[in-house]
Fold:
Amino acid sequence: ITVQPVRTEEGNLLCSGKVIYTWTFNFDGVAPISRSQVWTIENSSLPHFTVPQDLAVSCDESTEVANTGYPANIETYCGTHATITYNDIRINGSCTSNYQLQRTWTAVDRCGNVIEQDQRITVKDTEAPVFSIEPTQIVNLDCDDQYGRLPSSHVEFQDNCSSNNAITFVINIGQKYDVECLNRFQSDWTYTIRDE
Structure:
């Protein structure tokens, strides 16, 4: 006797479920006899991907994915697409422009299997601020002129990562007098700019 089984399905066979094959045998004078075979399907295998490498960037560079890398070799057990997301946690450093991002990449397949991997992005400020308008090198004054004429208001400076109001501006003044005429002297001004 050859009997073809009847197939039934339970659940989501893409992830987990059952396939049931039932054979029913009919004989004269007796009740039908049925036998079943159950195949249980379960996908608990984690997806896989290669996390972008750890790297260091300047504080004026972007930390967006386009600049710091996206996961590669994304695979799932059944060859289907995984959803990739990330979350950043900032770890502050010695100043606003020095910090680290702990970027956690998460891959989720269609069955809800999840794997996480971390990428560390170190952000550094390695450039000193610069004068955009330097102080006048030599200023000649009469003895009754005021120091307000000196060029502190004519100095401009900038930094690649800090705003101007975050830069420390220091003037050191040194004077050399003419012993024959105290109203004649040389004053050396040293301008120092320092970012945060």
Q: What stands out?
A: The radius of gyration is 37 Å. DSSP finds one helix and 13 strands in the chain. The chain has a mean pLDDT of 80. The CA atoms of residues 12 and 18 lie 8 Å apart.
